[in-house]
Prior knowledge:
- By secondary structure, this protein is of the alpha/beta class.
- It is built from 32 helices and 16 strands.
- The strands form three sheets. Strands 9, 10, 11, 12, 13, 14, 15 and 16 form an eight-stranded mixed beta sheet that branches. A six-stranded parallel beta sheet has the order 3-2-6-7-1-8, sandwiched between helices. A two-stranded parallel ribbon has the order 4-5.
- It binds adenosine-5'-triphosphate and magnesium ion.
- Adenosine-5'-triphosphate binds next to helix 3.
- Keywords: ATP-binding, DNA replication, DNA-binding, Helicase, Hydrolase, Isomerase, Nucleotide-binding.
Amino acid sequence: PLPSIAQRLRNLNERQLDAVKMIDGPLLVLAGAGSGKTSVITTKIAYLIQTCGFKANSIVAVTFTNKAAREMKERVVGMLSKQESRGLSISTFHTLGLNILRKEYRKAGLKEGFTLFDAQDSLSLIKEILDKEFNGQTDSAAYCQSTVSNWKNDLTTPQEAITNADTEEFLLAAQVYAQYQRYLRAYNAVDFDDLILLPVSLLMADEALRDKWQKKVRYLLVDECQDTNASQYELIRLLAGFRRCFTLVGDDDQSIYAWRGARPENLERLSTDYPNLKLVKLEQNYRSTKTILKAANTLIANNPHIYDKALWSDLGEGDPIRVMVTRNEDAEAERVAAEIQSRHLRHEIPYRDFAILYRGNHQARLIEIKLQAYRIPYKMNGGTSFFSRAEIKDLMGYLRLLVNPDDDNAFLRIVNLPRREIGPATLEKVGNLAAQRNISLFEASSYRELEESVSGRPLKSLQDFHHWMSTLRQRLEGASPVPIIEQMIFDMDYYSWIQEQSSSTKMAERRIENVRFLLESIQRMMESAWEEDETAGLDQAISKLLLIDMLERQEEEEDEDKVQLLTLHASKGLEYPHVFLIGCEEELLPHRNSIENDDIEEERRLAYVGITRAKRTLCITLAAKRRQYGEEIDCLPSRFLDELPEEDLVWEGRGDEADSVKKERGKASLSALKAMLNS
Ligand code: ATP
Ligand code: MG
């Protein structure tokens, strides 16, 4: 049986209890890492449902990453019966936005089955625009993409961007922005940022709609609110509405997404926007040993603070923090792997209790190799996404075109794959016709007029393709999609194509396995519609799949004993008994770009997030030399090491260097160490 809500509440401290029971107005819980903020949210959801009689589908909870949303869901579902949790929405901001858009797409000028563009899709669209309409200035594509994204996150319209552009570069980006939005609509597509921007614009402009959603969402909870950007903040405001019943929790010291437009200032703005805002602070940390917590507190004290926090723990001193200096990056990876294996064997610590955290994904490569060499099972988070694999991108292209024939990008990706003798010259003719008639490429490929410019096999191929896809589309209506997709795969002999494209049988098998996994996931999504009132369609399954990292979903189902590898950014909100923080060097952490841009504070918060993931032991590693662009360079220990309490650090290095370091610890030793490593 599930523990009763009374029991759950007894587990909380007094302040947490206050935060749970405050349900009438706006509430902000502001507290440091591991103080039970997420626990407040999960318990509060159960409390709202079980004690206050809220319906699960009137509660919306939002957090920052898919992984965090999943963990939160698990915690909540563990407290509720199946019946009680039906229709509960715990998701990321983007999934919430997508769910709103799925219901209101017509109002946003979209048609059924609209496509979700990923970053790569939107980059190629921007390139296309620059190429066609701005004299081929495709070099500016990446710049335009990030600038447009920033504008969208700040709720700046193309018109405003054009008016305010004070440099030529800005003006170009602003003009591209305007075209980009037009093209997106023509493709019946939205990009990632639109998932928030469009719901916000709709809710702002349409009072009846706003009313409807504010009635539907009776209570709103947001975790990690320090990382909300302007458009996300606006979405919260619009949904909370006049009732203003919400709980936001966050920690300004863990704001690590400034590059995505995140605004810790939103925390301050809250008290202006909601004068009756209640503030609860939590100060007891239930996660880490005193030593780990002291290190985190000492480090973050170097940043200026909006609110002062005094975090304490009564979990005992625990082990000192180990700092391992190694010869080079290979030795670093080797040390970490050896260390994990020996502790696993000697102390029977399960692999899943270890996490290896790093600043950049590229650092994981060597670690992976060494873990494999030691036969240590591991799982990597946020690595190469399932969706960036060619076989998946291609099949998704087919699925996208199936549900949205206006999706020209998808059409271009797959029309000649497997080969159908439809080359660039033919496609150009199709493109011309589509432009003349203002129709999609797919539609144009069946037009009679095409016979004036295209003939022979290419023409026949195009017509066959169009006919085949149209038939599949028709069959899709009201039917279960997976058998139809299987038929499509069979018709085009997709598996043979994959074999042809693979360099080995093994690789081909793995790719086919991936395709099967995609089909299974679609099947599963069809079976579990997100909400009762929602009819599951292939188009919904597809856009949801695009949003959710499939690797994560795959792993969700296996509860395997594996070492966890993840970036510092991805580790937010999570906790592990034993943490390795690797690559603690200048230019890596703090990252070189941040040093150049004088943005050390954000990097310090990142280090703070890393340290506070650890429950029992923390081990920091750094290399004296590291290869970079094929050249071996000398590394300096990170300045953040200087900011940790020396008395709690135990330095371990190789041979004599380590000895001499041990002999004279203290501030001076660090500079000595630096000098030594440099010599
Ligand atoms: P972060 O800032 O890293 O997201 P958080 O403030 O959300 O941390 P939680 O993850 O909710 O903190 O809690 C940290 C740990 O402390 C969890 O393992 C949780 O189960 C435990 N915990 C929370 N509240 C209590 C409590 N009152 N008594 C005992 N343990 C608690
Ligand atoms: Mg949390």
